[in-house]
């Protein structure tokens, strides 16, 4: 039998209101994640690794950052007729923009007409997971269903947060009901404390999908949503199947992370997903080279950890540190640092997420914070220590105590009380690294582990200022200015 021709459609037009202020300047799929990635990289990597390389990405809301990332990163071989194409809303069938996820595909039916696929794979662009979609397509074809919905097992207590899939008792591979966020639902026969939640990933027979989209477009009582309207259309006709994500096998995966899937649609879930990455045995392992997550490669130099004022050691523990990061006598613990972040002498960064180009000044303290790009934290300032102070300065604070700063947001210079708060907190919570590392037996500087390492002897990259205990450069531009011309 000839292989099925597959077109993949990535729904990437989401506004992401619940992720504000991270989505104030970009679409949700373009939000940076895990130091070096964008959220959309997970969906695209899964498709490419599955062997599907005819991919269109439907965009709408503040799409410039997303379009640029796709055009610079996801350039496949045209010689082999592979492509990842970003397609904006074009008003092909009227003067309205996309009215929902189903309407986005309906307004882009020309893409299906031009490609002439047998199968259409539709995926969301804002979830963190690994999945081989070819296995789901094989299961879909074998089942004879017209539509198949990927499902992940979740605790019953979370039923009111997801689209819930109920299966036919006589045939568990068929969907008997699809209910959006019900207060409760029956448990699974083999796991009474769990239910099947929709992952927002679908496989359709192409002709059946086109027919359903056209029918939906003619209705007045619809939200034009894939999960809320198109899937129930197939369920009512007895043509909808379910694919249990636990059956998906990924090369190089472990039992700990094989079925990991997280919706990062809120600040709390976005933060928690980062914390899942940094343990020695992470809940989700970024380092699986057999199923890589692709992204744009930074041109920044390797990360570096050097001594700062008074010989204080720069350190990072239980953290992800990206290219271009320089920690000069500061301490980073349980955090994720994106490209070109600077952490200066005596600064503390704990359980936080810092995006590209952030600068943490001397003696500043960050705790349970998310900083979008280019935020400059003045020396002695605090973020995440006093929720009332954070709110007074215009920072967003979640009910769980996470403080978020928007891209380029200004952090006011601290007053004396805030500087005392930073000093007192640092004194009460000494850096974990300081408890573990001292001088070596021969008095040489100890080796510091991380994305970049400091040799024990004669580091040629260590500035004379740092060796003498003076303040090292606080930014890339200052470091460049310090070089001999």
Short précis:
The chain is of the alpha/beta class and 485 residues long. It contains 13 helices and 29 strands.
Could you give the distance between the termini?
Answer: 67 Å
Shape: elongated
Mean pLDDT: 86
Q: What is the number of helices?
A: 13
The residue ranges in which pLDDT falls below 50 over 5 or more consecutive positions are 435-485
Structural class designation: alpha/beta
Helix content: 10-25%
Give the radius of gyration.
Answer: 25 Å
Number of strands: 29
Beta-strand residue percentage? 15-25%
Largest sheet: 9 strands, mixed
What does this structure look like?
- It is elongated, with a radius of gyration of 25 Å.
- Strands 1, 4, 5, 6, 8, 9, 10, 11 and 12 form a nine-stranded mixed sheet that branches. The protein has a six-stranded mixed sheet with strand order 16-19-22-25-29-28. It has a five-stranded parallel sheet with strand order 14-17-20-23-26, with no helix packed on it.
- Mean pLDDT is 86; it is low at 435-485.
- α6 crosses α7 (226-236).
- It is 23% helix and 23% strand.
- With 485 residues, the protein is α/β, with parallel strands linked by helices.
Keyphrases for this structure?
alpha/beta; 13 helices; nine-stranded mixed sheet; 485 residues; elongated; six-stranded mixed sheet; disordered C terminus; 29 strands
Task: Please outline the helices and strands.
Elements: E1 6-11, E2 32-33, E3 37-38, H1 40-49, E4 54-59, H2 64-73, E5 83-88, H3 101-106, H4 109-115, E6 119-124, E7 127-129, H5 133-143, E8 147-155, E9 163-167, E10 175-180, E11 194-205, H6 206-218, H7 226-236, E12 240-244, E13 261-263, H8 267-275, E14 304-306, E15 315-317, E16 320-321, E17 326-328, E18 331-333, E19 336-337, E20 342-343, E21 348-350, E22 353-354, E23 359-360, E24 365-367, E25 369-371, E26 376-377, E27 382-383, H9 387-392, E28 396-397, E29 403-405, H10 416-428, H11 432-436, H12 464-467, H13 476-482
Parallel strand pairs: 1-4, 1-6, 4-5, 8-12, 14-17, 15-18, 16-19, 17-20, 18-21, 19-22, 20-23, 21-24, 22-25, 23-26, 24-27, 25-29
Antiparallel strand pairs: 2-3, 6-11, 7-13, 8-11, 9-10, 9-11, 28-29
Helix pairs in contact: 6-7
């Amino acid at each position: 039998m000839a292989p099925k021709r597959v077109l993949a459609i990535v729904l990437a037009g989401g506004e992401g209101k619940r992720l504000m202020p991270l989505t104030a300047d970009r679409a949700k799929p373009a939000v940076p994640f895990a130091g070096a990635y964008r959220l959309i990289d997970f969906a695209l990597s899964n498709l490419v690794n599955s062997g599907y390389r005819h991919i269109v990405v439907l965009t709408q809301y503040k799409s410039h950052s997303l379009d640029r990332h796709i055009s610079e990163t996801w350039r496949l071989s045209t010689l082999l007729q592979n492509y990842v194409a970003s397609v904006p809303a074009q008003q092909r069938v009227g003067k309205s923009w996309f009215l929902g996820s189903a309407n986005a595909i309906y307004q882009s039916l020309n893409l299906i007409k031009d490609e002439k696929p047998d199968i259409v794979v539709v995926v969301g662009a804002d979830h963190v997971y690994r999945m081989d979609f070819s296995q789901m397509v094989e299961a879909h074809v074998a089942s004879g269903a017209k539509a198949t919905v990927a499902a992940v097992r979740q605790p019953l207590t979370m039923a009111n947060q997801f689209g819930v899939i109920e299966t036919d008792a006589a045939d568990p591979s068929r969907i008997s009901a699809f209910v959006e966020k019900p207060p409760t639902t029956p448990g699974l026969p083999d796991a009474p404390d769990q239910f099947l939640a929709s992952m927002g990933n679908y496989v359709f027979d192409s002709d059946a999908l086109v027919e359903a989209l056209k029918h939906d477009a003619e209705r007045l009582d619809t939200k034009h949503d894939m999960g809320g309207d198109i899937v129930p259309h197939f369920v009512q006709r007895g043509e909808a199947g379910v694919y249990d994500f636990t059956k998906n096998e990924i090369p190089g995966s472990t039992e700990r992370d094989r079925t990991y899937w997280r919706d990062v649609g809120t600040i709390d879930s976005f933060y928690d997903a980062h914390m899942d990455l940094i343990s020695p045995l992470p809940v989700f392992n970024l380092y699986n080279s057999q199923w890589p997550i692709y992204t744009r490669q930074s041109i920044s130099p390797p990360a570096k950890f050097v001594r700062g004022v008074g010989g204080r050691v720069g350190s990072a523990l239980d953290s992800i540190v990206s290219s271009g990061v320089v920690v000069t006598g500061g301490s980073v613990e349980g955090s994720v640092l994106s490209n070109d972040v600077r952490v200066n002498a005596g600064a503390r960064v704990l359980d936080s997420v810092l995006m590209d180009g952030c600068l943490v000044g001397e003696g500043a303290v960050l705790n349970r914070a998310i900083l979008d790009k280019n935020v400059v934290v003045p020396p002695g300032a605090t973020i995440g220590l006093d929720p009332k102070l954070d709110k007074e300065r215009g920072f967003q604070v979640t009910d769980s105590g996470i403080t978020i700063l928007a891209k380029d947001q200004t952090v006011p210079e601290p007053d004396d009380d805030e500087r005392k708060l930073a000093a007192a907190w640092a004194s009460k919570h000494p850096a974990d690294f300081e408890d573990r590392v001292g001088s070596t037996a021969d008095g040489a500087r100890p080796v510091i582990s991380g994305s970049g390492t400091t040799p024990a002897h004669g580091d040629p990259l260590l500035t004379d200022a740092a060796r003498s205990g003076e303040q090292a450069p606080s930014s890339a531009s200052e470091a460049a200015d310090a070089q001999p011309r």
